Amino acid sequence: MLSRNLDKAREAYKSNNKEASKIVHQQRKHAPEGHNQEQGQYIKSFIYGGLDGIITTFAVVAGVAGAQLSSGIVLIMGFANLIADGLSMAIGDYLSTKAENEFKQSERERELWEVENFPEGEKQELIELYVAKGMDESDAKVVTEIISKNKEAWVDIMMVEELGILEENESPVKNAIVTFISFSVFGFIPLVIYVVAGFTPGIQNFTFLIAIILTGFTLFILGALKVKFVDKHWFASGLEMLIVGGIAAASAYGIGILLSGLA
User: What pLDDT score was predicted for residue 29?
Assistant: First the structure.
């Protein structure tokens, strides 16, 4: 597949150098031009925020349990992790979504600039893209001529076909809120039995076991839901998350045992 040098195209755009842009379009190379953009969804923030929340919080619970510390310590460290890591995750989601939106917008502005200043080069690129997909060249030319009559549609198509960017108006704030809420809600699951045990003394000897069961069940469900974004069978995905969470918890529990003498 013929393509231009995208880095040079960006440089030409930033410097408003039309001649350089023309040269970039004319000097093609055999290398696909593309971006591996992960498209954020609120449901994705919900699921991955929940997975991070429950795994990290349960790891804290397991580490404290391994060190044979009191339930009070479990709650103090667990809630501290819940708030601190939850905010960290939310801020990270906000910044990454904001940066992705800004990148998409800058790429769209560049494509629009190229369409306005070097339409023939952009048409040729679109023809090549359609031919690469198996379309007859004469048909590709006809389709391109039709598309190029509408500048906005033309840019939309170039964003997808040339750059692999699907434009979605995600809200960084909403993504951050969803991540924080999901992290907090699911991260609270390993702690809930310790809160209940404070009012039900009869189950205090089984709090860690119950926490394991609740966490394992929730991890499997969230892992199974992850198939919306990964090409896996729901059972395999659920089992994978259960194993990953188990490894993290086992490691934390082992460290707790090793360092228990320091407490």
Answer: 52
